[in-house]
Amino acid sequence: MSVTAAAGFRAAGVAAGLKSTGALDVALIVNDGPRSDAAGVFTSNRAKANPVLWSEQALEGGSARAVILNSGGANCFTGAFGFQTTHQTAERVAERLGIGAIEVQVCSTGLIGVGDETFRRGVLAGVDAAADALAHDSADDAAALRAAQAIMTTDSVPKQAVAIGDGYTVGGMAKGAGMLAPGLATMLVVLTTDAVAEADVLDRALRAATRVTFDRLDSDGCMSTNDTVLLLASGASGTTADEAGLTAAVTRVCDDLAQQLQLDAEGASHDITIEVRQAASEDEAVTVARSVARSNLFKAAIFGNDPNWGRVLAAIGTTDAAFDPYAVDVSFNGVRVCHAGTPDRPREEVDLTPRATRIVIDLFAGDATASIRTNDLTHDYVHENSAYAS
Amino acid sequence: MSVTAAAGFRAAGVAAGLKSTGALDVALIVNDGPRSDAAGVFTSNRAKANPVLWSEQALEGGSARAVILNSGGANCFTGAFGFQTTHQTAERVAERLGIGAIEVQVCSTGLIGVGDETFRRGVLAGVDAAADALAHDSADDAAALRAAQAIMTTDSVPKQAVAIGDGYTVGGMAKGAGMLAPGLATMLVVLTTDAVAEADVLDRALRAATRVTFDRLDSDGCMSTNDTVLLLASGASGTTADEAGLTAAVTRVCDDLAQQLQLDAEGASHDITIEVRQAASEDEAVTVARSVARSNLFKAAIFGNDPNWGRVLAAIGTTDAAFDPYAVDVSFNGVRVCHAGTPDRPREEVDLTPRATRIVIDLFAGDATASIRTNDLTHDYVHENSAYAS
Asked: Could you give the count of Cα atoms lying within 13 Å of A380 in the half-sphere of its Cβ?
């Protein structure tokens, strides 16, 4: 259940000194083919990190043979020197693997503004060590686990997933624990499959999958500069995937990883699903659910086990989705505390002590449904994010 | 320096048992004329509380002779019963003052969903007590102070201000400490003037003033259901205000009150001004500044005295304002830590220990400037907002 679950892939994770703790910090994923079709989705933030600028361009041909990832520095807002570092990283990987630099995707994560000479030396040394580790490692789960560990920042656990398709496999790994917001959550994700699939099929499958998974994870409303989700296909199974089946399998892996990201969100004490029902459209259901997921007051109330439906209604009242604010039902963990915009069941009936929290909002405006995953706003969130740089 | 600083106004603040602490909770402001021109600005939240629904309608004629305000319950999402409570409140005030109910503005603040029979009885008793108190009090500062205290919720101090115009006075009081976000911040504000001014002049002056003051205060991104800002003119000075002068005086009072709201924001340990310079337009400067004010990661960093300019750039990158992310300067308390999208002065030079914090963002895209006031995200914010209902 890893990034090497599909045939044709090797992985490595090494420690190159980018993390002051000495933990693993450089990962390399290699697609040994026979095919190298690939697709990617990148942050919609206009402030894109150097690796994103490189990888978006490099992926235009729809092909990738390797992904090099580092934690310990985002290489974002590091100027021309930073972009050269990304370029040199791709070239070093290409040299070691005997491929073209254009076939190398680069991902970085860590603090913005970190990308100096020391960082560059570390990353390049990491490339060499990872390439050496690859040579000695077969595509086993231990190497894939080390790769997943090497991309962790404030993550408490590595994140891996797998789905079995019709004659092929889709696997993946992810990192992300904060700055999780749409388009995309702050995260790096590498998905692999041994299906035979052209780049345009991969692209459609990946976009369809991220739209209903990572794009509906909104931990803290903050959008990162380095978000990257890649899907690489080796074709090693020999099975040509039908698009619907591939989309379903990729979606399952993305959904699994998105849930793992939610469960590991910085400082969270509740994993909250906000489901909006009977919306006029799916987009409006997402908008309404997201407005609640973005409300600090709502999130702080959940932290305090307070079924504060007033804050839910105050949040959805800021949207322009179709509904009558005085015809809305809201339930917390199955107890309808608000009916038709007025108090319903007593708040004392709601048990918010479990970590899993489910808010259901009925708009009575149509038949569309969508959910957003988020977390509560806690002391630990404030602590972790005020101390991140130290 | 209060809501009775201008001639022609009386005030009262009484305790009617709406607050469990027994503190003052009902305020009454009366305009004794000779004129009764008035204007108001109300929340743009679609989920409007019953008093907002009443007051917006009642103010359509551009006249108001009294404002009755209560804390201890927002009377929002309390159904038809709640609207009847508001209506009865206005009628009781009208009866006691010998005016029409339509000339009574009603404001409520406190928890959403609170507005039952007990609440109604308390408010109506408060009207009687306030009307009695008015009868015995002249328009002195002590009564005005009690009125300002009666509308406090999580506010730690009452908020009052005054500005002297050319032959007339503008005074005011405000409450608000959380749910402060544009259009408007969560707050009730009553402004009074003894200038002679028609309702349409008052309306333009008030909108011009709130646009650059309360609408640029964004404490936690949350928009309330009860926000109301009223401006009442008694004409008692006999001086007809020229519109520019009146707008300036009203703006000074609003700016003073907005700053008091910011300084008293729930749990804040830093009062942050985010100034955006050289924007293509004022609107875009506001959009960019607000994106930073809304970033929990930025706000948590400030709490930790961390000049994390990466989080500033990540936030502004989510906007569609005109600028090149790689040509932006950012300074924290006068130290330029980011120049042209790359690291500049060492972060160690920035002193974020003072409570007053100034972020300046230069976009190099035009010549417009605007500022947003906000606060940091602290443990106390989380604590206060998770325990609000208890």
From this structure: 13
Domain A9-263 CATH superfamily: L-amino peptidase D-ALA esterase/amidase (3.60.70.12)
Q: Does the distance separating the beta carbons of A46 and B340 come in below 8 Å?
A: no
pLDDT in tens, B12-43: 999 999 998 999 999 999 999 999 999 998 88
Which structure tokens are listed for B335? 């130290």
Written as one letter, the residue type at A141 is D
Per the structure block, which two tokens stand in for B348?
Answer: 């160690």
- Cβ contact A295–B222 (<8 Å): yes
Give the DSSP letter of residue A25. -
Select from B220, B304, B320 the Cβ nearest to the Cβ of A386: B304
Contact A297 B220 (CB under 8 A): yes
Q: Where are the alpha helices (DSSP H) in A44-97?
A: 50-58, 79-97
Q: Where in chain B is the domain with CATH 3.60.70.12?
A: 9-263
Chain B residues lying within 8 Å of A325, measured CB to CB: 46-48
Specify the CATH number of the domain B271-386.
Answer: 3.10.20.340
Phi-psi region for residue A40, left (φ > 0), alpha (ψ -120 to 50) or beta?
beta
Q: Could you give the C-alpha distances from B264 to A145, A161, B153, B270, B277, in angstroms and in order? A: 49, 47, 11, 10, 27
| Chain B: closest CA distance from residue A380 (Å) | 8
CB atoms near residue B231 (< 10 Å): 30
What residue ranges of chain A are covered by domains with CATH 3.10.20.340? 271-386
CB neighbourhood size of B8 (10 A): 22
> Which of A113, A222, A325 comes nearest B46 by C-beta?
A325
Please indicate whether, in this complex, the C-beta atoms of A296 and B111 are within 8 angstroms of each other.
no
CA pair distance B230, B38, nearest whole angstrom: 7
Residues of B in contact with A74 (CB under 8 A): 310
Q: Are strands B368-375 and B159-164 parallel, antiparallel or unpaired?
A: unpaired
Residues recorded for chain B: 390
Alpha-carbon distance B75 to nearest alpha carbon in chain A (angstroms): 10
| B182/A343 Cα distance (integer angstroms) | 27
Calculate how close chain B gets to A62, using CA atoms only, in Å.
Answer: 27
Residue in A86, A89, A109, A186 annotated catalytic: A186
Annotated binding site of B for substrate: 153, 175, 186, 266, 385, 390
- For the question of residue A240 being annotated catalytic, the response is no
The answer to whether residues A254 and A53 touch, using CB atoms and an 8 Å cutoff, is: no
pLDDT digits (tens, 9 = 90+) for A51-74: 999 999 999 999 999 999 999 998
B338: β partners: B330, B343
- The pLDDT-based confidence of B132 (bands split at 50, 70, 90) is very high
User: For tokens 């408010």, what's the residue?
Assistant: B123
d(CA A191, CA A6): 10
The residue among B283, B289, B287, B276 whose CA lies nearest residue B364 is: B276
pLDDT digits (tens, 9 = 90+) for B318-355: 888 999 988 999 999 999 999 998 889 998 999 999 99
ipTM metric: 0.75
